[in-house]
Structure to design on (442 residues):
């Protein structure tokens, strides 16, 4: 098994690693040259289920779950905006899964559509992870899908980054008409005696997954100030939720817990269950915010693939955007709202646009600054160094020149993290007799 970068080391060391990877190697290494993007003419895709000596390099996998009709030109699902707006021009047959793959050879991003539900997402992710045509060892995985959203926490169109993934299916269930009278619900954890029994087992059977919180926090910090589209019709729907302040806000970016269940549920009572279930399995460390079907299955495959070195589970992210509320507003019944949503989600278009904006921001940061993120999984403290990553460097004699019109210097931020990184790189470059014109901000 090959050694992989791990983003869970001490924060100070991560900051220093950025100084080395993002600056020392990016600006001072004489062997460093700009990466040459692949083109579709240069691509060599190996045969399916055969040995492959030249697997396609993948910097990121875009994981969507469904498309409604065609991949382009009709009513969009989760994949269509990406296909229409980005150069996913290389179609790669994927007959052992739900949907063919698409590859952007310049950014080296691979897009997949898993199919709806835990079973399909688990199988599709495992099929891709074991496919020898792709080098996924350093790939970041971005789940980008729509979801139901709790009006207690956010509004439709909002974007939610999740680290806690709670399964809503693995449990015991007694019909509410037959449950003991003192039980709040007939739904309770396996190997326990009653609902929300504190003497529950550890979630080793897939009941809950905690993915890389530091990477989640980095993605949130990177995108939290984005202005999400507030499309026509959203305000009218928001106004119905008179008892939920957060539901009435324009779309925004936040963090929160996610529940994955194969049953499309709706209503105030189920919403309360989801909040209690997520709190129960996360030991109160997160709140239920979004509901969908696939993510515990997808991450199950990622965990198994990590064990054999095919992927790095610490590079996995979940982004869900609210297409509909998970409970009814005052004056409406759960059945009314659910049946109405079956005709089309109130926030569908806005949620897809938010997915593209927020998810695209993260993908562009990762792939556009690969020399930083190839070996170092980002953490929130690395964002202060992003100013370094927006320019290319080249060597001219013994100086380091910034390839930017009208400038031959680099302005760095003034924090202690940046200063430490700068000091490290200055020493590195001086020893190599390559230190050029570098100035710090005051």
């Amino acid at each position: 098994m090959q050694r992989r970068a791990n983003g869970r080391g001490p924060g100070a060391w991560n900051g220093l690693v950025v100084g080395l990877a993002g600056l020392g190697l990016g600006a001072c290494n004489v062997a460093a040259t700009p990466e040459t993007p692949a083109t579709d003419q240069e691509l060599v895709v190996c045969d399916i289920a055969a040995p492959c000596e030249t697997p396609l390099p993948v910097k990121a996998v875009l994981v969507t779950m469904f498309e409604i009709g065609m991949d382009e030109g009709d009513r969009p699902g989760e994949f269509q905006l990406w296909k229409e707006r980005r150069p996913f021009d290389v179609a790669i047959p994927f007959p052992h899964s739900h949907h063919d793959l698409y590859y952007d050879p310049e950014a080296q991003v691979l897009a997949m559509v898993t199919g709806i539900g835990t079973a399909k997402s688990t199988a599709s992710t495992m099929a891709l992870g074991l496919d020898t045509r792709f080098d996924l060892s350093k790939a970041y995985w971005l789940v980008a899908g729509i979801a139901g959203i709790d009006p207690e926490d956010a509004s439709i169109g909002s974007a939610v980054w999740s680290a806690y993934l709670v399964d809503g299916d693995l449990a015991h269930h007694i019909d509410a008409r037959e449950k003991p009278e003192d039980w709040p619900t007939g739904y309770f954890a396996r190997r326990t005696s009653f609902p929300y029994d504190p003497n529950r087992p550890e979630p080793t059977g897939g009941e809950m997954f905690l993915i890389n919180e530091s990477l989640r926090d980095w993605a949130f910090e990177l995108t939290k100030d984005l202005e999400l589209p507030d499309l026509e019709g959203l305000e009218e729907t928001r106004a119905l939720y008179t008892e939920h302040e957060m539901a009435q806000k324009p779309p925004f970016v936040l963090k929160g817990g996610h529940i994955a269940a194969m049953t499309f549920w709706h209503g105030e009572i189920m919403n309360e269950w989801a909040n209690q279930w997520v709190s129960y399995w996360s030991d109160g460390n997160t709140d239920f915010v979004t509901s969908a079907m696939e993510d515990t299955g997808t991450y199950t495959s990622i965990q198994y693939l990590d064990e054999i070195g095919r992927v790095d589970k610490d590079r996995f992210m979940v982004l869900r955007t609210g297409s509909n509320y998970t409970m009814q507003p005052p004056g409406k019944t759960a059945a009314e709202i659910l049946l109405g949503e079956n005709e089309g989600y109130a926030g569908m278009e806005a949620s897809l646009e938010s997915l593209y904006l927020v998810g695209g921001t993260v993908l562009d940061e990762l792939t556009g600054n690969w020399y930083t993120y190839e070996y170092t999984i980002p953490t929130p403290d690395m964002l202060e160094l992003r100013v370094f990553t927006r320019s290319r460097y080249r060597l001219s004699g013994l100086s380091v020149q910034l390839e930017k019109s009208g400038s031959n210097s680099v302005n760095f931020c003034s924090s202690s993290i940046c200063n430490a990184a700068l000091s490290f790189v200055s020493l590195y470059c001086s020893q190599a007799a390559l230190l050029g014109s570098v100035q710090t901000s005051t």
Summary: DSSP finds eleven helices and 20 strands in the chain. Residues 1-36, 389-420, 422-442 have pLDDT under 50 and may be disordered. The longest helix spans residues 348-368.
